[in-house]
């Protein structure tokens, strides 16, 4: 039952942050395209790790800093939007998820290898 509650909270927070980014993102992210890859709540629901992926990997630091500076606004938006559905609004921490970029880089390296076929 507890895991179900955590997953429900993660989903609500995910939707709310997406809504915030749609409304307010242009003002502080400029033209950077980001994706919320996932949210991981602590078991006591006090901390939310929000994994974000940046389309232009070279702008990751800019996006991380911009999101960090807006974390209080985001928390307030979450509180106003879903504060009645969840008791405790968690502290927000952003984590840049570069998994997609690393996988793409490895795939490119592997595709450029010239490996001759095995002879039988």
Give a nutshell description of this structure:
By secondary structure, this protein is an alpha+beta fold. It has a single domain, classed as 2-Layer Sandwich (GMP Synthetase, Chain A, domain 3), CATH 3.30.300. It has helices spanning 2-29, 60-69, 71-82, 99-111, and strands at residues 34-41, 47-54, 91-96.
Explain this structure.
By secondary structure, the chain is an alpha+beta fold. It has a single domain, classed as K homology (KH) domain (GMP Synthetase, Chain A, domain 3, 2-Layer Sandwich), CATH 3.30.300.20. The protein contains four helices and three strands. It has helices at 2-29, 60-69, 71-82, 99-111, and strands at 34-41, 47-54, 91-96. It has a three-stranded mixed sheet, covered by helices on one side. The longest helix is centred in the N-terminal third of the chain and has 28 residues, at 2-29. The protein is elongated and about 65 Å long. The model has no long low-confidence stretch (mean pLDDT 87).
Structural class: alpha+beta
Which fold name is given in CATH as the topology?
GMP Synthetase, Chain A, domain 3
Major sheet: size, sense and barrel closure?
A: 3 strands, mixed
Number of domains: 1
CATH architecture assignment: 2-Layer Sandwich
Give the SSE order as H and E letters. Answer: HEEHHEH
Give the N-terminus to C-terminus distance in angstroms: 56 Å
Indicate the proportion of strand residues.
15-25%
Helical content, roughly? 40-55%
- CATH class designation: Alpha Beta
Shape: elongated
User: How many helical elements?
Assistant: 4
Total count of strands: 3
Strand order of the largest sheet: 1-2-3
Mean pLDDT: 87
């Amino acid at each position: 039952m507890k895991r179900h509650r955590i997953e429900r909270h993660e989903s609500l927070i995910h939707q709310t942050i997406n809504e915030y980014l749609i409304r307010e993102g242009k003002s502080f992210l400029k033209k950077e395209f980001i994706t919320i890859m996932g949210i991981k709540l602590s078991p006591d629901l006090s901390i939310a790790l929000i994994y974000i992926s940046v389309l232009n990997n070279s702008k990751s630091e800019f996006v991380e800093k911009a999101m960090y500076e807006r974390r209080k606004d985001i928390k307030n938006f979450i509180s106003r939007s879903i504060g009645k559905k969840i008791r405790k609004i968690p502290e927000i921490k952003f984590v840049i998820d570069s998994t997609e970029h690393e996988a793409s880089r490895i795939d490119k390296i592997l595709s450029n290898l010239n490996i001759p076929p095995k002879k039988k």
